[in-house]
What does this fold into?
Amino acid sequence: MSATLSNRHAPPATPPALADFAAEASCFDLSGLSLAYDGKPALRELTLRIPRQRVTAFIGPSGCGKSTLLRALNRLHDLNDEVSRQGHIALEGQDIHAPEVDVADLRRRVGMVFQTPNPFPMSVYDNVAFGLRLQGVKRKRQLDEIVEWALDSAALWNEVKDHLHSSAWALSGGQQQRLVIARTLAVQPEVLLLDEPASALDPISTLKIEELIRTLKSRLTLVLVTHNMQQAARVSDYTAFLQAGELVEYAATDTLFTNPRLQRTENYITGRMS
Ligand SMILES: Nc1ncnc2c1ncn2[C@@H]1O[C@H](COP(=O)(O)OP(=O)(O)OP(=O)(O)O)[C@@H](O)[C@H]1O
It folds into this structure.
């Protein structure tokens, strides 16, 4: 794949591993995506397709560009003047950098959950209702219904239904992370980006988040950055292995972990390279 991707002047071709994806509908299509921080390359001509209603994991050594790639998908780098970008990202066929794209609307469609749970300093209910109120939803009954639906979707309703008006900060770390997921789901995103969503959590909370990821893919596209290869193997349908900003191999998760095409991938997944 690298021979194709590293050829700066050739039009992006379909790398062989993408044959696995032939039957999948696209959510994101990236072509020739390069990104640099203050001139220093962090992503190098990535061309990949992220299938709709599947879980796609980005794995690779520390600093290989996983979070940078994830953040590019909802234009979080717009806030950083030092970032330069080349190439294209399309969401459902539309260029996310086109002038007519409203960035706030893009970020509603493409929600993001970070490593450390970040509930707002307000009640459980108000956290989940936050984005809805920003959208102008005022009717209490409608808010109540969506808050319950979102908390239920995030597998948290039963644990918080009697404490909706208590501070979100009183919840455990795992509950806080599911609350943040509920807050994101409340505005009905099409995509959920998850940046190491369980790395700050205990094993039981981690399993709950993994179960939730598997459940949510029936209605959403999920993209997961993880250091934990067992986690990628457990929850994802497709896995992309990055190294030094380059997409090394991208395949169905089972294939990548059991029968990688490239020695570099095998070295990484067998722990011969960290
Ligand atoms: N805001 C920033 N400013 C400057 N350089 C950055 C910034 N964020 C990331 N980088 C650099 O870009 C490269 C990719 O970083 P990134 O965080 O995307 O990697 P990662 O694979 O997610 O790493 P980790 O697994 O350690 O979180 C690294 O060299 C990193 O130092």
User: Anything to note?
Assistant: The pocket of adenosine-5'-triphosphate is lined by residues 37, 42, 60, 62-68, 80, 227 (CB under 6 Å).
